[in-house]
């Protein structure tokens, strides 16, 4: 937590986060133009933000893009702020699907719409099972009550409401055992727009921890609320694996 508060204790770094919140996936050149700072100055601030986990970056082709990582902020909210709220309104998690025909893997040059990343004190096997086994997903998913269908290529995993109806569906597009999962993401609530997009989970082992990265691609404008939902989802997964307690919505 100390690194998070250190990173936030600077107006320029807060401005960088504001710019990324308004438009995620910006290059160093874009941020330099918006901040009217030297390239070196922006790089120094980005380094602090990346070390705190508040910004993550990915290189696509010749360019490196930077993303606001909301997971650490969500963890702060869940620890100190959320308990003060009596019954928070449900936050939309819009899981979307992608048509299986014609594409099994993401274009390696395509740019994510957003990235969430966290480090979890767990084993690779345990994290993999939590992401791929429906009964475990239901344990920590912040707004569903049950799930069915383990992650298998070409097969759907459904998140269910209390009445048994389908809240959202994810179909597995590809699996690289214990390291990478690509899934579709399709909502069955909200405005009724089920335009498909894709989500990718990446697992990297770091000693006795695992770094989990969640990338989301091709999100339609109607699903702008999905970013906040994914931050809560990843934070709940981390809490569940480390403490046995998920972070579920009330009400």
How would you describe what is shown here?
- This protein is of the alpha+beta class and 251 residues long.
- The chain has 2 domains: 2-68, Arc Repressor Mutant, subunit A (Orthogonal Bundle), CATH 1.10.10.10; 88-243, START domain (Alpha-D-Glucose-1,6-Bisphosphate, Chain A, domain 4, 2-Layer Sandwich).
- 34% of the residues lie in helices and 27% in strands.
- It has 8 helices and 10 strands.
- The strands form 2 sheets. Strands 4-10-9-8-7-6-5 form a 7-stranded antiparallel beta sheet, with helices on one face.
- Strand 9 and strand 10 form a beta hairpin.
- Helix 1 (2-8) runs antiparallel to helix 4 (39-52) and helix 5 (71-81) crosses helix 8.
- The longest helix has 18 residues, at 226-243.
- The protein is globular.
- Residues 84-106 have low confidence and may be disordered.
Question: Keyphrases for this structure?
Answer:
Alpha-D-Glucose-1,6-Bisphosphate, Chain A, domain 4, alpha+beta, 10 strands, three-stranded antiparallel sheet, 2 domains, Arc Repressor Mutant, subunit A
């Amino acid at each position: 937590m100390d690194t998070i508060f250190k990173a936030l204790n600077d107006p320029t770094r807060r401005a960088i986060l504001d710019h990324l919140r308004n438009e995620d996936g910006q290059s160093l050149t874009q941020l330099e133009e918006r901040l009217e700072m030297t390239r070196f100055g922006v790089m120094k601030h980005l380094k602090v933000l990346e070390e705190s986990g508040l910004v993550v970056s990915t290189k696509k082709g010749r360019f490196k893009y930077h993303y606001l990582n909301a997971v650490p902020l969500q963890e702060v909210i869940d620890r100190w702020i959320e308990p003060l709220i009596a019954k928070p309104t449900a936050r939309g998690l819009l899981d979307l699907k992608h048509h299986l025909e014609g594409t099994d893997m993401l274009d390696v040059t395509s740019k994510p719409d957003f990235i969430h990343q966290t480090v979890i004190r767990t084993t690779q096997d345990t994290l993999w099972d939590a992401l791929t086994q429906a009964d475990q997903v239901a344990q920590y998913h912040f707004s569903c009550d049950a799930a069915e269908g383990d992650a298998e290529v070409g097969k759907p995993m459904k998140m269910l409401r209390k009445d048994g109806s389908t809240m959202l569906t994810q179909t597995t597009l590809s699996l690289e055992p214990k390291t990478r999962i690509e899934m579709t993401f399709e909502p069955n609530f909200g405005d009724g727009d089920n335009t498909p997009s894709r989500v990718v989970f990446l697992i990297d082992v770091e000693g006795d921890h695992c770094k989990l990265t969640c990338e989301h691609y091709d999100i339609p404008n109607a699903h702008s609320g999905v970013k906040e939902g994914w931050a809560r989802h990843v934070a709940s997964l981390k809490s569940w694996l480390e403490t046995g307690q998920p972070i579920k919505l009330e009400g």
